[in-house]
Amino acid sequence: MSGLGLVLHPTRDVTEVVGIIERWAKRHHKTLMVREEDQHRVSSCIVPVPADEVAARADALISIGGDGTMLGALRSAIHDPKPVLGVHLGHLGFLVEIEPPELPDALSRLLSKDFTIESHACLACDVCGDDVVAFNDIALVRQPGSGFVSVTLAIDGQQYGYYRSDAVVVSTPIGSTAYSYAAGGPLISPAADSVVITPSAPMAGISRSVVLSPDENIRLELRPDSSPVVVEMDGLVFRDAATEGAVDITYRRKAGLVVRFDPLRYQERNQLKMTLLDLPFLPEQLRELLPEELRRRAQQEIPPPC
Length: 306
Hints:
This protein has helices at residues 15-28, 54-57, 67-76, 103-111, 179-182, 263-275, 283-288, 292-301, and strands at 3-8, 31-35, 47-49, 60-65, 83-88, 116-127, 130-134, 137-142, 149-155, 158-165, 167-171, 195-200, 204-205, 210-212, 218-222, 229-233, 236-242, 246-260. With 306 residues, it is an alpha+beta fold.
């Protein structure tokens, strides 16, 4: 492993984290790369390259931010998937595993290939002739004050009904905790291969989530009575005020590679985060997430049973 590409959060201060990586890279004689447009945010020792070449030139990517930055790193390597290590600077990340103090050890383990790979699927979408990919979701969203999204649903070429709602969200399993969940959709295990379609605030037509096989082809086509629609990809606006056309969606396995050092611990952390989404969590499960010393102290303070 000779070169690492840095993918930076667009607005957060990443100076401290980049400094840790830069000092490590200097000790191990590794090249660091960053997009040309981010050159002013890092030192002159980091090589600026065109945005579409960072993933191609790097042996691995380091995402510095939250889930949004991580998704951007995965999308940037869609044509040649590279391992992506996530460093957490966000608020409630489900994809990112490493905290900044853990970075030196994590980088050394990355160098010695002491990690596992968690593969992620994406949605490969044809949006009115333009190809885009989404690792979380693709959503057709109403413009405020302009009426409702009205689209027909076809699966493998067969019409199945229509939606009339504030939005229609198509998500992957990892995306089921995001917009789809907020719209009332189910949580899908990351180990499952499936696609879920969820309407937000439905007024007519299909009013519940639909879970589909990954091998089924999905087509959402704007109806003549639809208001102008915003097309969002992983929360980013891809097309604004579309008034006609269709979105064709297929499921692509193993489109992204995420570095995991401790999959069990990562899963436990995500369980804790999920409690913030109102999922039940037993007290003894919460105690298991405490550091070992605090766990022993808590156990000592529990009175013995009568």
